[in-house]
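Sample intake sheet
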Amino acid sequence: MAIEHKTVLCLASFFKGERFMQEIKRLGGSVILLTAEHLLQENWPRAAIDEVHALPDLFDIHSVVKGVSYLARTRTFDTIVALDDFDVETAARLREHLRVPGMGESTARYFRDKLAMRVQARDTGILAPRFVHVLNHNLVNEFISKIPSPWVLKPRSQASAVGIRKLHSQDELWQAIETLGDRQSSYLLEEFVPGDVYHVDSVVNNSDVLFSSMSKYEAPPLTVVQEGGIFCTRTISATSREAKALEVHNRKLISSFRLVRGVTHSEFIRSDQDNKFHFLETAARVGGAHIAELVEAATGINLWQEWANLEMSRKGTEYSLPPAGKGCAGLVLTLARQKQPDTAQYEYPEICWRLNKGHHVGFVVKSRSLKRVRELTDELMQRFLLDFHARMPAAERATY
């Protein structure tokens, strides 16, 4: 692959993306990291980073634009990368402001704004839950008169299940809407579709999906966040009927949402009512909750590394994906009661990755057998509940 030198500005509202920055440096690029002040003490891969800059936080987009514009007086940024979901819109704004190539603000909304996702899916014929913007109260009343409860009230620009509420009555719904005050237009309301939730994690180049790994959550993330429990997801067989259907849906999604190059994390639900896959949401970044480690265990493809290779290639024209394996893997995570959980007694030979983070426990297991992965993850979930599991109230917004 032909590589050209690039200076890459990495935005990180949270501590992540170490492998990405290391690969950029290995390929001969320069890495400039912009993060939040309180994250400066994290274990960033300093040897791979040429400069580190910090602001009080990266949520104030106007301050970020001013700060980066100041840096650009003496530096040329060839690429701007959002390492976290909360940085996607900020990176797009910076590209527009500095005229740096890459995803602009209109396309970024498809991968960040849940209302924009829904409208684009509807307009391009992608099956998704019915919805209404929480803007005109007459239209909201019309929606809830036609769509039976429960309904799901979603913030347009949070991540994962943060801030999402499941509501069961009109009184409960309108009370929730009224408490939003002037923030109502930043929400949408959609029908609740019960079913199994899957995620597809992809590498895209020149609008073509080069690689996809399909996985199924043990329980929907919304359920885990709001009702407690252990987070678990497992890869599914690439030759299964569900995987083939997901591949078709994912390709249509990427094409309809106009992503040219990068990595994606998309979620679909297979409805209990019609047995069809409905689009839930997508993101133009590596999936959170250590899904990259799950994908690498199963396929050998590291999404952070391949993303870096894409960014360093000449508009992706020289990029080639390495061969992908066909193994099986499962990921189990929980918040822990203990500050430094002791997992020494977990000695399964199939464990290939362990999370090292205070008040958390997490493993990735891999095997050639889907049955064995399920047995292991089921057992780990039961043991985690007894040994470690703790629960915190669901957050209304992202916090550091």
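Comment: The domain at 7-102 is CATH 3.40.50.20 (Rossmann fold). The mean pLDDT is 95.
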